[in-house]
């Protein structure tokens, strides 16, 4: 069980090991990757008639995950997933990624391998080419910073800014699974649907593509920082208000059951970070298009959870009355 | 002198403060930036007839800089410069950047402002649009991870892989300034040409563009990890050997004088990391093109420092004899 430590392996050897791993996974690089990993920079050919969509997000040990209960492959998986989720929210198709690893010497070379395995497995699922990156050591926590590049046709771009009063507010999938999964992990549990939701969230690439392609959404954002944050962001970018109907939030059976037996407010789980679903708004005139998207998506649920209002308040309507929508997760507080 | 701490400011407010700063600096976003900072991802229009060039590199406190003597603006400047230097080595024109900030709570909001000032000043100099990024807190050191995106015409791409036996080995500018500057900073010095070389290295964008445009180089790499590393990388990628002539390495007068008065081996400074010059090889038949590049560049020196060989050894030729070229800087050793 002895692992090579990073300092005994050396940076050059480590980079070669990582590059070899990436090369082995890509049985064939797509033809549009002209220069992959190993040069000063990567060179890719843009897809004709599309724009480049660019996003970057870092996953930091001790902030975004705890290595005591998040396996290394899930660390790598999540680092890419959070970025793919951002591309999904723009209606983009992911194409390539760059991976920046800031590694403490307390992580072994085999752990880095597993981290990359998780990242590369998700990349393969979505045909994302890992075209470059960099490795540096850290006197502090592990940081995995991924940049994802996608493509989108100009008229299919989804933004946060198009919601109008009278639009309906919708969400993909179910809410609360990630928060409950995290609680179960903290309590010592190691498997189950909610834990999977936390460890290996599914970026809603296909839903984003179909919403864009069918022009079925007036605004879109992903839920990685929580529902409260996403609703506020769309409201602010679109200069509208929003009222969310608490009773309509789509909790999974597992989330309901966990709260029924363990207590706590299911609403808090539904509002928590790390459900990588899409929040989007739909004009009344787009309802037919949305039905088309729903049919094409098949299994994935789509739930109406509220309405866009002219007044700028962001509210939560419950049986007991209406109040300000609680805030999302804030890393600095 | 009291600064807002990051935890009192809050992540959302901090992001808004950073976004406002970026927006203020970009008096007008270029027309090809369709969606800038503030959405789930940025959208940019590729330049017609060009490929995308992508690179990412992280600057880590305690590894790449010491906040005791590197001012915050220089931290930001260098984080972008290292990436622009990578684009230069591909013959690419930089267009856009994403900035990922991993911030310890020991950094104040004003410090973050200054860091961004330094980064944005260099971005403005090269007309680089900062189109996005993200902010997260860190229980450890500051990490600034920048992704830079450039464009290059297909036939003008410079790589590490084209050197052939008989090619000449050249380098831009002078060597050793960054290493000497770092020594002077460590000794308490705070200004001078060498310190500037360390704190605010000039990425050789124009040299890279001209080398690519004139097809004057058979291979190119930047020197950010040191001459020993760059020579080895080109030799390996091109499956050739290289012999560097120690006496021809272009040391600046300041570097010579510092070593004359303070001792130490000037060769060690010339081989150290952080001189952001370009190393490139030139076919004998390309000499005329290189002269054209030199004329167009004006002030920037170009010096022949060795030859490409058929035998795969990477050597340093000195008056005392020939030996293996010393290694470059390795973060893990």
Would you give an account of this structure?
Two copies of one chain form a homodimer. The first copy, chain A, is built from eleven helices and 13 strands. With 333 residues, chain A is of the alpha+beta class. The radius of gyration of chain A is 21 Å and the shape is globular. Chains A and B meet through helix 1, helix 2, strand 2, strand 3 and strand 4 of A and helix 1, helix 2, strand 2, strand 3 and helix 3 of B. Strand 2 (42-44) of chain A pairs antiparallel with strand 3 of chain B, so a sheet runs across the interface.
Provide the spatial order of strands within the biggest beta sheet of chain A.
Answer: 8-10-7-11-9-12-13
Q: Please provide the ordered H/E string of secondary-structure elements of chain A.
A: HHEEEHEHEEEHHHEHEHHEHEEE
Low-confidence stretches of chain A: none
Describe the biggest sheet of chain A? 7 strands, mixed
Give the oligomeric state. homodimer
User: How many beta strands in the DSSP annotation of chain A?
Assistant: 13
Distance between the termini of chain A: 39 Å
| Beta-strand content of chain A | 25-35%
- Mean of the pLDDT scores of chain A? 92
Alpha-carbon Rg of chain A, integer: 21 Å
| Inertia-based shape of chain A | globular
SS element count, helices of chain A:
11
Structural class of chain A: alpha+beta
Largest interface: A-B, 73 and 74 residues
Instruction: Determine the fraction of residues in helical runs of chain A and give it as a percent range.
Output: 25-40%
